[in-house]
Fold this protein.
Amino acid sequence: MRVGPRWILAFLVAAVVLLHLFVNQRWGYHSDELYFIECGRHLAFGYVDHAPMVPWLAGLICPTGECSLFALRFPALVARALAVLLTGKLVWELGGGRFATLLAGLAMIIAPAFQRMGKILCIPVMEPVLWTACALVLVYLIQGRSRKWWLALGVFAGIGLLTKHTMLIWGFAAFAGIVLTPLRRDLRTPWPWLAGLLAGLIFLPHLVWQAQNDWATLEFLRNISEGMLARIPRPLFVLGQLLYMHPVAIPLWVAGLVFFFGTSGVRYRILGWIFVVSFFVLLWTHSKPYYLAPAYPALFAGGAVLLEAKLRSVASRAAMAAALVVGGLLLTPFTLPILPLPQQDDALRAVLGSIVPPEALTHDLHGEYGWPEQAEAVAAVFAELSEEEQKRAVVLTARYGQASAVNFFGARYGLPRAVSGHMTYYLWGPGEVADIVIAYGFPKERLLKYFGSVVQQGRIEHPLANARERGVPIYVCRDPVQPLGDVWDDFKIYRHAGGDGSAEPIQAE
C-alpha cells in the first residue's frame, strides 16, 4: 500500500506537535513570556519593542495574569504545526509529491531556528506561518485563480504587520518580485492596490498608537541599530543561515534557489526574489541571522520539488531523508531542552571548546530559570519592612523581565506591583507615589543619586539563571531626593538594558 503525500504530511505535523508537547512544558517561564503577559494586561495597539499580536494572545490566555506553561505556549505549538502544514501544501502546489513533502517537512522540523521559536511563546514563531501563507496566495494568483485572492494576501500581510514589523520587509520584497515577474500584469488592476490598502487599514491602529507615543518603536529600532545590531558582523549573518536552518538542510534550500531561478520553477520565480531581496535588506541592516527564517519554508518547498525530480533512485532518496533525520536527532539536544541544562552546556563546551561560550548559545534556555526565586528573594526583603512601610513601598527594576517576574509570581507573597523604565514599562509610569523603593538591577552608586539612604537587604541567586540575573543585590531605598514620578525620564530605556541597569546595549533576551 502506497502512503500518499497527505498521510506523510499528517505524520510530520503530528511529529512536530508531539515534539513540542514533550519539550514545551519543561523548565519554566521565559522572561519575554512574562513580559508579554504583563503587556496583555495593558491591552493596547502597540508596545515599544514589538507589535501587539503576541501580547494580545498572552492577554487572552492569561486574562488574570495567571496561566500554565501549556496554555501559554499552546499558540507556539499551533504555529509550528501550521508552518509545517502550509509548507507541505506549498510543495503540492509547486508540483511536488510524497518525497518532496517528506523532505520539506523534515527540514521544517529539524531547523534549530524553528525549534527554538516553537519552544516558547515568542513573536518570531508566528512569522513562518504568515510568510508561507502569503507565498501560497501568490502561487494561487500565478496559477490563475480568482484575483480576489489578493484580498486574502492583504489580510495575511496586515495580520503579519500586527505580529512583527519585519512583515514590511516581506511586503517590499514581494513588490520587487511582482515588478520583476509576469505577475506585474496585475498591477494594472485594482486588486494588488486593494490588498495594500487592506493591509494598511489593519495596521492603521498601530500607527495611530505610535503617533500618540512619540513613535516609540522607531526610537527603539534606532537605538538597537546604532548599538547591538551595528556590532553584528555581516559574515556572521551569512554564517548564521547555515546554522539556524541546520547544516544538513543546506542542499535543500540551495536547491530551492536553483528551482526558482532555473527553468523548473520559473513560473514561481517571485518566491525566489522574495528570499533574495529579504536576504540583502537584512544583511545590509546588520540584522540577526534568524530574522530571515520565515523566508525559508518557500525555499524548502521549491528545493524539495527539484530534488524529488532529480533523485530518482531509492538509495539516493533514502540517503537524503536519512541525513535530515540523523542530523536533526544529533542537533536537537543542543537546541531544545532534551538534556538537563548543565549537561547541555557541558556538551556544547566539549564540542566548541573556547570558540563560543556555551551560554551564548543557550541564553534563551537559561532565560527560563530563576524568575520565581527572584520574586521570592524580593518578598523576603519586603517582609522585613514595617507594616507602614509596606503600604508605601514599590518595587523598581532595571529590566522588563525582572519587573514581569515580580508581577507574575509576586501576588502569592502580597508584593506591590513592580515598575521599570525599561521598554513599555516606561509608558506605564511609576504608579502611585511611594517613598520606600525596593530596587534591583541597578548599581548602588546610581540609586544614591535619587535616594538619601540605599541599603542592601538581599541578593538574587540561581545557578542556572542568565549570568546577569545571578548575584544581583536587592536594595531598600529611603528618603527620595525627589518623587519617583519627577525623575521618571531618567529611568527610560528604549533598548536592551545593560547589566548595570543602564541603556548600554546587550544581547537580546
Observations:
- The chain has a mean pLDDT of 93.
- Residues 5-337 form one domain.
- The CA atoms of residues 161 and 170 lie 10 Å apart.
